[in-house]
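Friendly challenge for the regulars: who can give me the structure tokens for this chain first? No prize, just bragging rights.
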Amino acid sequence: MDLLRQVLATQPNITSLNLEFAELADLEPLLSLLARLPRLKELHLAGNRLSKLPKSLAALQVLEYLDLSNNLFPASLALLPSLQSLPALTELNITVKDEDEELQIMSALPNLHKLNDLLGKESQNASQAVDSLDLESTNPRLKQDDLEQVAMLYDEIRALWRQEMPEHDSVLGADFDAHVKEVMTELYEGVKACASPYLEHALMMQAKFDLFEICFQKAIEYAARSSEATESVLGKMKQAHAQIIVELVGIVSTAVPKLMVKLKAAEADLEKGARETGEVLEAAEQLEKENSALKAELEQIKKDRDELSVEVEELREENQRCLDALVKHSKATASTALSKVQEPELQRSPPQAKLTAANLQGRALSLKQLKDVIEEIYASKTKFDQRCIEGHQPRETMEQHMYTFLNQKYGLKVPST
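First reply, four minutes later:
Bragging rights claimed.
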């Protein structure tokens, strides 16, 4: 109470208040003082002697985190009406009996994000799927049952003492409270400092052992009243058991850092493998795309080749028709020229005379002259086709162009055949 008044006087805007192991038995008298902390978001009440909560905690409007673990609540579910009155509560630590009780609390408080450092309902399944070790199934956290077992055993020892020394009972009670407070304080400090859940579990186990130590110690003291030999034997047993626990925690403390280093290395290797796998898959996908593009290009090349083959065949057939027509026309012209020209004049004609219209009409063409005419017709056809393409005009066939060329070049009137 005094501590809280001092906080109100010096730090009225505090956001986190630690009242752990403050021997609080009732929160009701403190509620009005806590309500005067308008920015209080975290309240730590672990390790006290609380057996109930006020009916309503609505005065703590902005409280988000509440730690009620390791108190003397007879049943955690009985606290739900009070907890439901906290409008901003998202994280809760409370001692529970089993997993079913945790599930009931999470169901009753749908706004919780975390319960006892476990993810809330929306994220719990995903978290458990990622965790490769089922730590929940072996979680040695201190539960209400643990404290009750220690208290019940200690009460039996106190009953033995009361039979012989009733006046010593108050001292036994004070010793028990002091011992529990000391163990819980050491546990809290140890857990707060450790960086591994495995080491935290080891500290929890040691705390369980330490809680029962006072029962062992008081039993030894009681036995010493009747036999010093018995006290000596039991003392050695107690020391041996304590040494085993200390060594066990030491082994865990030594092994965990090394394991964590190996775990980080394994995680790094796994991340590297995943990254390399992604790069390989990306490269494979790129190769697949390139392969598909090459296939499409090959198909287009085959299609173009087939079209060109058809066009070449058509041109070959057209050229053949044109050549046949030209040969036929040359023979007809040569026959006509021979019937009109006298033999002496033919003999006087120079063998390499230039090809003219008169030559074509008056004499037979030599093989070279015929080749020159054909090449000239092909060249003229090529130029004419290019002009048709540029002017978007229809092209002539080779035969049509040959008739046009002979008419324009030599004035020959070629009848259609």
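The first helix runs from residue 2 to 10. Confidence is low (pLDDT under 50) at residues 120-140, 348-362. Your move, everyone else.
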